[in-house]
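Morning!

As promised:
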Amino acid sequence: MMLVNTETVPGYEVVETLGLVHGATTRAKHIGRDIAASFKNIVGGELRGYTEMLSDAREQAVERMVAAATELGADAVVNVRFSTSAITDGAAELYVYGTAVRIETGTVA
Amino acid sequence: MTPILASFAILLLLAIGPVLFTMLTGLSLVRTHERSLDRREGGLTGIRLDNRKAPDDPSAIMDSALVVGHVVLAADPLSVVRTRLRLVVGGEARSMGRLIRRARREALIRLREDAIAKGAAEVWNVRFETSSISRRGKRPKAMQIEMLVTGTAVVRAG
């Protein structure tokens, strides 16, 4: 499965559009990470716990999107976009969406 | 009189010492990060970034893949104080701008490293997205920012 955030897969030709696919996950940060982050907050700097947590969550959302695309028989998902929305204190929804397509290989111009 | 003054000075130092210490530590961490950004950016000049939607030259493209750079940063305490003061009088919040620039540069470095790992020398359709993950409402929380950069890495033959 090829994932790109361009409208077509560079070097390939889209032969069939299968429609919008998406994946989402809602994550709450746990108290351990909060404590570690609160220490880091004192002096500032990267909150590695949060970076990691959000990356993991985003990966899971991508996996779910890929599963949906695979089910449609897609080769690629184009125009992939990420979106985050805060649900409540300390919880966020990570959403990834794109258009599932079938591409023809070997049509490189 | 002198012992009273001395003990007063010690008390004052005890009170503002830790605050001063965390502020200076935070400031030095910011400087360290900026130096690290300068250094790592120097080694990544080979990657071409473009925020146009598709490669202008479609020849010899072998492969393409989504690449991502992502970071969560917390503001240093001095910046937090300066921003709080800035919120009273309005105007440009420079210290927050500095935080956001650091986050953007860090995320871009990670994006380029991701592209290199995929064997690409160019990234198209580069997009930035920020979100605030700090707690809303209640007492004012430390200022935190999440920076996400996405793009499509393109690998060419030869």
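Chain B has a mean pLDDT of 87.

Hope this helps with the figure draft.
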